Amino acid sequence: MAALRAGHRRVLAVLASGLLLTVAGCSPNAPEDGSDGPVDLLQQDWEHVPGVTNGGDVLEVSSTARRIVEQDGGGGQPNPALNLAGTHLVAEGDFTLRASFADVTGDATWTIQDSPPVVADEFRIEPAGLRLTLRGDDLGIALFDGSRPEEVTDPRPVFEEHVTVPEPETTLTVRRSGNTLEIADGEQTLSTLPCDGVFESGELWLGLSSEDGSFEVTSLTATAPEDVELAAAGPAVARAERSEDGLQALADRKRPGFTIGAAVALGPLVSDTDYAQELIGNFGAVTPENAMKPQHLSPQQGVYTFEEADAILAIAESRGMAVHGHTIAFGEALPRWMQELPAGTEEERRASGEVLLDYVTTVVTHFKGRLDSLDVVNEPFDVAQGTSLQEHVWYRVFGPGYPAVVSKAVHDADPDVKQFINENGADVPGERQDALLELALETNAQGGHIHGVGLQAHVYDLDTDAISPDDLGETLDLFEDAGLRVRISENDVTDDHGTEAQAEQYAAVLNTCLRSRTCVSYTTWGVDDRYNWWIDGRGELRQGHDFLFDDGVPTPAYEAMRRVLGG
């Protein structure tokens, strides 16, 4: 990443993707030890960090208990926040970080990582870094080296210990010297540990979080030796530019008003210049991949963490990109509190219904005017490609008519957002497609406001999932005759038959969609295979190769898409 260098000067404010970043450099007054002056991190941008409020001269941190749950609602992995959209540090060498903690109730956790984590649907890949957790006079120290654990959802540190601090309200120092880390409390060294290979990226991403309490950070500074450049840097997306020969630019010329979109994650968007340029250069719409799912928006009942979703929307808005919201009523990605809402009696269903509708109203009102469209119901049918409605919490509380209940609540909160029901396996004619059409029409007959359907178009196996132009064309005609619009909402294609077969399938879906008046947009479910990870049936982490870019390089599928668009 091209850093914003500070040296002995103050760097001017940078307008980055709609986020005003106060990028402060090092103080012109060097301290007596010959190092650069401190970067005051309290004065940097913390606006989009869940659980963190900037009080001017103090950062106030409260518990969010963010977790990533598994599809069946079991298990779960902590997902503490980093300052992604704001400021991170560039320190290509030794560094010293100091943080002062006050009013600690419960725990105070300070995270320093050399890259953002990769957050997938059901797991988080933990990067290399250090996590310090203060609880009373106990300081937990955990060092991660970024290696792949045996169980992805249970990353284990390569070094872990607990030490006693003299005072629970303390100033902690983290000092890197070569391949050694020193953790100190004031002048007292608490621990010295090897950190070979941990902070090799030259970047430091900082996080503050609490599992079950709150605390204040009254001072947070960074310094480096005189021969090491230290700087505060904004997000990578600030340097990305739209391409006049990119996919969206080509689509604008071929079919004005038609959008080419991609599902995006905040981590790579702010940290990876390749990913940021691929997105901004080629796409005219974004779908937050995970940031708007219930477990990310409301990890505790009545607690909302909109910050990361807001950051994605702010970037999109600053670049004139449309936003498709994803998602409201869904049986997966639910926080535990939502999964466990009681529905055994009529009284329980009434009370739980009020809670769920309050969630819908709060979320849709928060994003009102910022979304072009929204998945109000996502994957309603059973996962075995059948036609029965999944009996998740929305079904248990409201019954089989829950899509209409949710649709009406969404419309009451934002009558202008276009509502969609999004489903997989309905891209080709068959019983599942018929069931989706019937559900959309029945929802509207019950007072709902469904504008159209999202056809996910996932092609995980070209032998069984391939979508022919004829089948897709017949599908689009069916929904058009019913007065419904269609989004190709999550298209991705495996390369298990080679990249040319992959390219042909991508081109077939896009070309068929472009030719239909009822197909209003096309979205691929990812940007770069660098962040395309999944867990196989044996629990092993695997990298997919399904997207239009692979490790910063356009794939044959990308070139095939360009040809369809006239490029």
Describe, in plain words, how this protein is organized in 3D.
- The chain is of the alpha/beta class and 567 residues long.
- The chain folds into 2 domains: 14-227, Jelly Rolls (Sandwich), CATH 2.60.120.560; 250-564, Glycosidases (TIM Barrel, Alpha-Beta Barrel), CATH 3.20.20.80.
- Helix content is 24%, strand content 30%.
- The strands form 8 sheets. Strands 3, 4, 5, 9, 16, 17, 18 and 20 form an 8-stranded antiparallel beta sheet that branches. An 8-stranded parallel barrel has the order 22-23-24-25-26-27-29-30, surrounded by 6 helices.
- Helix 11 (469-481) links the parallel strand 28 (458-459) and strand 29 (485-493).
- The chain is globular.
- The model is unreliable at 1-35 (pLDDT under 50).
How would you describe this structure in keywords?
567 residues, alpha/beta, Jelly Rolls, TIM Barrel, 2 domains, eight-stranded antiparallel sheet, eight-stranded parallel barrel, 34 strands, 24% helix, 30% strand
- How far do the termini sit from each other? 30 Å
Give the DSSP E fraction (strand runs of 2 or more residues). Answer: 25-35%
The top level CATH class name of the largest domain? Alpha Beta
By DSSP, the count of extended strands is 34
Number of domains: 2
CATH topology of the largest domain, by name, is: TIM Barrel
Largest sheet: 8 strands, antiparallel
Task: Name the CATH homologous superfamily of the largest domain.
Answer: Glycosidases
Total of DSSP H or I helical runs spanning 4+ residues: 13
Structural class category: alpha/beta
